[in-house]
Amino acid sequence: MDADRAIEASVDAKGKLVNEKNRSERSITGTRTLGVVTEVLALMGGVVMLAAGVLVCISVGLRWVTSNSVPGDFELVQIAVAVSAFAFLPFCQIRRGNISVDTFTSRLPARVRDNLDALWDFVYALTAVFIAWRLSIGAAETIANRTTTMVSGIPIGWAIAAASATAVLLAIAALTTAWQLVRRSR
């Protein structure tokens, strides 16, 4: 009877034989892929943030030397900071780097803490989905209306769309960390 149960457990939904090692390797590979994607996105956000810093330095230097600055520098910096901030969030979540206050839960058993953390990761994922949804509506409207910045005339809808896409990635990262915590607490 145990042999029959072992065989049933090693058959996936499509009827293919799958052992537990392969199943966990696929899960780890998916998590690694998500980790790589979030890391690359965070690095790109860092490059954008550095470029914004260089732009500020150039603008301040020009203002000091010529009494003129880079036109629309504050608009570019606003867009860069917003896009960069959203680019960092999925990486922070997948690395479990968000600040948590465990004053009341530190003495609870690890299993209970993991389940509570999983619950809050799920709530975070729902919040990220809501933010992505509203940002996508805002992006669609600003793109359709051809809304631009005042000085430089840069279309802002695409930056909002990028923030929406990274909010979706944040939701995926939060769901992934929630699932990992639930699996660990079993």
For the secondary structure, the number of strands is: 0
Total discrete domains: 1
Rg, Cα atoms, Å: 23 Å
Tally of helical runs? 5
Strand content: under 5%
Low-confidence stretches: 1-28
Order of helices and strands: HHHHH
Give the terminus-to-terminus CA distance. Answer: 25 Å
The coarse silhouette is elongated
Instruction: Note the main sheet.
Output: none
Can you give the mean pLDDT? 86
Report the helical percentage. Answer: over 70%
Q: Which secondary-structure class do the elements indicate?
A: mainly alpha
Structure, described:
- The chain has five helices and no strands.
- Helix 2 (20-66) packs antiparallel against helix 3 (73-94) and helix 4 packs antiparallel against helix 5 (157-185).
- Mean pLDDT is 86; it is low at 1-28.
- The protein is mostly helical.
- The chain has helices spanning 2-9, 20-66, 73-94, 110-144, 157-185.
- The longest helix has 47 residues, at 20-66.
Note the main attributes of this structure.
disordered N terminus; 186 residues; 76% helix; 0% strand; single chain; mainly alpha; elongated
